[in-house]
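INFO batch 0412 | record 1 of 1 | parsing
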Amino acid sequence: QVQLVESGGGLVQAGGSLRLSCAASGRSFSSYAMGWFRRAPGKEREFAATINRSGGDTYYSNSVRGRFTISRDNAKNTVYLQMNSLKPEDTAVYYCAAAALGSSWYAIDPRTYDYWGQGTQVTVSS
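INFO prediction complete | emitting tokens
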């Protein structure tokens, strides 16, 4: 079992920045690829970013590429999502998730993920 707890959400003006954190406890954090997803009001869950076990490979959705950066610190059992140049359309509940994959793999399909956090709200005002 892996428990994931997100933090760092809040209210920010358009053009601002936030950094989300996701702290993991339980089984070895470095055994999991990690992802960030989001769900905006009235919309389905959407992939945002993913990172492989070592942190050497990342992938982003077109909507956040160039503005968001995913990273991880395996010594601290934490994955981060640095969000810059935020837009009102980034408003959503953001979730981190863990997937038991091979060392070089990451995943954009939410069905691949085994564990999910409870989410943190990000609201971007115009």
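INFO post-check: The mean pLDDT is 95.
INFO record closed
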